[in-house]
């Protein structure tokens, strides 16, 4: 058995096209297009590529993008003042501060200052709390994108055993809440987890997000499982790979995401969804 590929390129394009149709209908009715403010500090290459992708998708979705590029030595006070200004700007629907931030800036303080109704990354404690209480408003982009991929398989997630490898605030923890909301039985694995291999072997759904190349071995995958690889790593030869040993895993899984071309594209497309949702929520 060779797994079917969950093609993030195709699915993300469909999502952005759907957002564009909604934006066009909104504008045709006399309302303004949604607006997203993206703040980037410094010149981290990965962050620059990611922000560049966000700008392109904003254009495709008909969302106005306000791009603020600041030097890496920007003070925390100046960054907080900028966020506060965008909070008060009624023409801005979403605020995104690209992570990671320079070490002299407290990222938690910045995230908590963003108005929860404009928190299109879905990282604010208010939005995470709503997700935990089964009342989601703005949902973290990557986990929401993963759920969209899972929906595209046509498989009912309810009752399935899901194992998440990685417990970060950006992916692992909110992903667990998303899967719980879908009525899966969830196990989160981390650096202190014992017998990781056997936990993965029993999983109907595996979500890997640890940032270590080929950390999840392909022969661990249960026959017929769904494998979602959130990791993206650059090898010494310059090639990109995920956290899952793809070539082996694809021979056992029923569905699998590629790297690149999988979850990363979904994250940006979901940001477009969140920005449109934030605009509508604020209007309501």
UniProtKB/TrEMBL annotation:
Keywords: Amino-acid biosynthesis, Histidine biosynthesis, Hydrolase, Methionine biosynthesis, Multifunctional enzyme, NADP, One-carbon metabolism, Oxidoreductase, Purine biosynthesis. One of its GO terms (cellular component) is cytosol. InterPro entries: Aminoacid_DH-like_N_sf (IPR046346), NAD(P)-bd_dom_sf (IPR036291), THF_DH/CycHdrlase (IPR000672), THF_DH/CycHdrlase_cat_dom (IPR020630), THF_DH/CycHdrlase_NAD-bd_dom (IPR020631). SUPFAM superfamilies: Aminoacid dehydrogenase-like, N-terminal domain, NAD(P)-binding Rossmann-fold domains. Pathway: One-carbon metabolism; tetrahydrofolate interconversion. Residues 6-121 form the Tetrahydrofolate dehydrogenase/cyclohydrolase catalytic domain. GO terms for molecular function: methenyltetrahydrofolate cyclohydrolase activity; methylenetetrahydrofolate dehydrogenase (NADP+) activity. It comes from the Bacteria. GO terms for biological process: L-histidine biosynthetic process; methionine biosynthetic process; purine nucleotide biosynthetic process; tetrahydrofolate interconversion. HAMAP family: THF_DHG_CYH. Catalyzes the oxidation of 5,10-methylenetetrahydrofolate to 5,10-methenyltetrahydrofolate and then the hydrolysis of 5,10-methenyltetrahydrofolate to 10-formyltetrahydrofolate. This is Bifunctional protein FolD. It comes from Iodobacter ciconiae.
